Amino acid sequence: MIPVQKWWQAPYFWAGTKFYDFLAGAEGIESSYFLTKSRALDAFPMLKKENLFGALVYYDGAHNDSRMNVSIAMTAALYGATVVNHIEVTSLEKDANGKLIGARVKDRVQEKNGEKAQEFSIKARGIINATGPFTDAVRKMDEPGVPEIVAPSSGVHVILPGYYSPSKMGLIDPKTSDGRVIFFLPWQGNTIAGTTDAPTAISQNPIAGEEEINWILSEIQAYLAPDLNVRRGDVLAAWSGIRPLVKDPHSKNTESLVRNHLITVSDSGLLTCAGGKWTTYRQMAEEAVDEAIQRYKLTASPLLNVPRVSGSEMIDDAAPLDGKCQTHQVRLVGAHGFSNTLFINLIQHFGLESIVAKHLTESYGDRAWTVAALSAPTEQRYP
User: Fold this and answer.
1) What's the pLDDT tens digit per position in 244-261?
2) Residue 35, H or E segment
3) Which tens digit of pLDDT belongs to each residue from 49-76?
4) How far apart, in Å, are the Cα atoms of 272 and each of 149, 197, 242?
5) Residue 183 bridge partners (DSSP)
6) How far apart are CA 47 and CA 41, in angstroms?
């Protein structure tokens, strides 16, 4: 929901939401629509009544980014990729001609356990640098004097109790006091609010600062009813992430940021894929792999022993793995047997509570069957 406080904002926001519908095309969820003041307050009772003319409602998707990340890694592993966590690249190795031939890495798990980290070399025909905010650190291992292309931006989110928002309606302010966008959305039984957008230093574990948290609380308070006091003590959790916005190294204006992604290849053969966002991750991967095949003279071949990726024995992936790009058809782990009624099957089979069954299916998809099977039966049915 976008609150409309002036009558002349209504056609402006209406045009914007309808253009958003147009861009979504056949992938759109529902069409946007206008709500009068009374209907807006019915849909979002916590909204401030003063100076409210109405509201525009549009539809958008949301996902659990941490689960999504794990699902991508699991899917890649099932299709043959070697996924290794907690391995840090310490340097890149080159041949006599200055071309990259591998990387020197160390095992951080041993280091965290108080042991000496084991270091070893990994040989490779090609190296893809897709390390988000740490992109420039890897690029400088290849060329120490290379200009930086990442402009790191801090994004802070806070979690508030669920009573601050309706279960099916969120709020977005397209222009806050300093021109940024802020949202206020229902999230897994609670309310998530964010986000900030400010230049930041790159760190391994960024922490949400008090100034940023208080700014978010102040901005959302301006849209809520006066009798709802958003307190600092209501914050259940807060975290900070780093957006790896990039500058085009070939642009004359070095300060201009690229809002999508950027793929470059150094003289030594380091292929860097930087920038981008979740909604374009498959396109980023496709373009990076296509470039790698060309640059490293790789040959794509069919996958003969196709693994069973689905968590349901009744469903096979329809993608023909013939050596051509199938990213538009290959589904991630958990997607094959998922449906909006899957949680009912879990309830009937395992006797789970509705809230637990819904959480499992929304987090793991058809792999919820596997997760639920690990639980210990209580010999009692629900309901």
Assistant:
1) 989 876 665 545 676 689
2) strand 33-36
3) 998 999 999 998 888 999 999 999 999 9
4) 11, 24, 18
5) 172, 194
6) 6
pTM comes to 0.87
Euclidean distance between CA atoms 21 and 29, whole angstroms: 9
SS3 357: helix
Single-letter amino acid code for the residue at 322: D
For the record, the structure tokens of 276 come out as 């981008």
Q: Assess contact for 100 and 91: CB atoms under 8 A.
A: no
Residues 260, 266, 270, 271: is their CA dihedral positive or negative? positive
Q: Annotate 279-324 with DSSP letters as a single string.
A: GGHHHHHHHHHHHHHHHTT------SS-----SSTT-------SSS
Length of the chain: 383
* Surface-to-core class of residue 359, CB atoms within 10 Å of its CB (0-12 exposed, 13-18 middle, 19+ buried): middle
CA nearest to 276, candidates 264, 265, 284, 286: 284
Q: What is the rounded distance in angstroms from the CA atom of residue 80 to the CA atom of residue 69?
A: 17
Minimal CA–CA distance to 127: which of 159, 97, 92, 157? 92
pLDDT by residue (tens digit) across 347-369? 999 888 999 999 999 999 999 99
